[in-house]
Amino acid sequence: MLKYRKELNLIILLLITLSFSMIILETDAIECKKELECSFSNQETIIISEHVVKISLLSFQKVIVNETISFINNQSSPLSSLDLWNNHTDRNGMIIEDDLGVLSHEATENLLRINLRSSISSGELGSIYLNYVLEDHFQQVVSESFDYYRFEFISTISYSTLVYEVDVRYVSSLHLYDRPEVLPYFPSTNPPIWSGGYYNIGWKFNNPKIFSIDYLIYLCFKSPKGNLKVRGYVLGALGFLGLGSFVTLWIMRKRQSKIMKKLDDIYLTDDQKLLLKLIAEKGGRTTQKELVNLTGFTKSKVSRNLNPLEQGGFVRKERWGNQYRVYLTDLGKKVIE
Questions:
Q1: Phi and psi angles of residue 212, each rounded to the nearest 5 degrees, phi first
Q2: Which end of the chain has the least Cβ crowding within 10 Å, N or C?
Q3: Domain ranges in the chain?
Q4: Is 213's pLDDT higher than 60?
Q5: What is the model's pTM?
């Protein structure tokens, strides 16, 4: 027994340390819940009938998130603003809209206060749309036995919610990590389905618990094999050593490859292609209102389709009075050509 005294002491020390760590984690979770409860005075004053999150994984560096929130004012007095808790502080380019256009908002690290266009009376319905970008959101996980990139999306349920849905789509250049020691995606549901130029996978939660911090989804992807840009530069350098005609041909192909790379990064839906075509037919400049009239789409549908086009560099929007002018960029013209 004396022979193994050191080993036993080490095991006892590890168990004590582990127990202490669990107490700290539990305390942090309780404090987090208290902080959330303080931020929302009465969670029953608003009922979220449906909260749909659509996430587009375009590369390991860029993720586009679109959230649609349909809610009911369940309080006796009119509702003029809406508070939402957002777990992802690395969000950029936040745009919040309703069916008529952009809404103003204030943001702290996690809390978003959205100023509604007009007060929502008791019992009335409302809808808002959040659009933002997560940059460098993937985490690389490396050990002696595996190497992969992990994407996580965490949601804290702020109000009574009937349906919470998360749909993720990712481009074909991203490949799920298929080693047995790591789950490629969680929750483990049906496998991704190829549709519309993307792999699609989704989760649906009915009546999720308020202030739950465990609504986590993740996907794990294989690390990219080599740097394709470096390979392109090497090939370009070899072509430069050849005849001048080959140099010219290489430059033309390089420009085209940049355009195709952009198209690979942001897949264009049929509605987005239609908007680009209509803007081009108007001489490369029109208004968002005119696009509504030409397509028959709602204002919110036109806005939601223009946002990824603007973020991808295909169009440019400018405020013009109480509406927006939309311009076709050089990249957008190349796509039309």
A1: -70, 130
A2: N
A3: 2-39, 43-222, 228-265, 270-336
A4: no
A5: 0.60
